[in-house]
Design a protein that fits this description.
Elements (H helix, E strand, L loop, with lengths): L2 H20 L17 H20 L4 H17 L4 H9 L5 H11 L5 H11 L11 H14 L7 H5 L16 H15 L10 H21 L2 H11 L9 H10 L17 H26 L10
């Protein structure tokens, strides 16, 4: 790690955050439709925006302008979720859904609370159904992480049972990594470490496995210029006990970023109109904020405050 790597990560993050702020209206949820008919992709995009803004806020390594931008985006997202009322209504409409908890946990960690939703979530966490979720294992880890952030009592040994069942937990042959498995692998790491806040949450055997094979995967996706997934791999690096930082890769990502701050997905040509480019390129831009934030924080040897107990 050197000063240039930190500067590049900071630069990419600031530019991406500014672009997200300029197109924040594209994240607005549709009006005039029943709550349960709101498109899932719109909810997911708003959740991802919330996550990126919260991480900038949590790490507190951004400059004052970017810090204010992140605070504004988090408040915007909270308002779009009607200060938790929408999540409460969605949870009541579909009691078995875990999405409301996962979204709400981000705001709860930021100090934005909805008492009625918390009461409902806590009640449902005590049901037998909460212990037999039919999610793939890395998604179950996401629910456990959300419960931890929200302050719900942890399920004893749940992560220890789930982690070996994930793709990463099986330490597969590294050439079997494809786009779908890569997404599952990165998010297994994120959920176990709370997005880099707890590197010790990653079992030593998996840390060793990633130390061996992450450089290979980073090289592959760097060559293919799939910036979306590459950004997630850079964020995974920051969740390890001894990250590599990958300065040349940050240089490539910085060159790929457009002058307006948007990061393309590397698969489709972005439109010059931000509102049109939003559809296919908001996610890699959000990932750039996340990767840049955790990289700068790790380089500064910052230890974020633990999630609420």
């Amino acid at each position: 790690m050197d000063a240039l790597t930190v500067r590049l990560a900071h630069q990419v993050c600031d530019g991406a955050l500014a672009w997200l702020d300029r197109v924040r209206g594209c994240f607005a949820l549709p009006r005039g439709v029943p709550d349960h008919e709101i498109d899932g992709s719109a909810l997911k995009a708003l959740m991802e925006l919330s996550l990126a803004a919260w991480l900038v806020q949590r790490e507190a390594v951004a400059g004052p302008d970017s810090g204010r931008t992140a605070d504004g985006l988090l408040r915007f997202a909270w308002n779009e979720f009607r200060e938790g009322d929408l999540l409460y209504r969605l949870q009541r409409h579909t009691p078995a859904a875990t999405f409301p908890l996962e979204v709400y946990s981000i705001f709860a960690a930021a100090g934005l609370r909805h008492p009625a939703l918390e009461e409902l979530i806590a009640y449902q966490a005590g049901l037998r159904a909460s212990r037999v979720l039919e999610h793939v294992p890395n998604r179950c880890l996401a629910v456990l992480a959300a419960a931890r952030r929200t302050g719900l009592p942890p399920m004893p040994d749940a992560a220890d049972v789930l982690t070996p069942r994930t793709w990463l937990g099986g330490t597969p042959e590294p050439w079997m990594l494809d786009g779908n498995n890569a997404y599952g692998m990165t998010h297994t790491v994120f959920h176990l470490t709370d997005w880099g806040a707890r590197p010790e949450g990653l079992p030593p055997a998996l840390d060793d496995y990633l130390r061996r094979w992450l450089p290979v995967w980073v090289e592959v996706f760097d060559e293919t210029a799939v910036w979306d997934l590459l950004g997630e791999l850079l964020a995974v690096d920051m969740c390890l006990r001894a990250p590599d930082f990958y300065r040349p890769v940050w240089e490539h990502l910085a060159r790929a970023q457009r002058d307006d701050g948007m990061v393309p997905n590397g698969l489709t040509r972005p439109s010059q109109e931000p509102e049109i480019a939003f559809l296919n390129h908001h996610h890699p831009t959000i990932v750039a904020v996340v990767a840049g934030t955790v990289t700068v924080a790790r380089a500064m040897n910052r230890t974020p405050a633990p999630a609420p107990a």
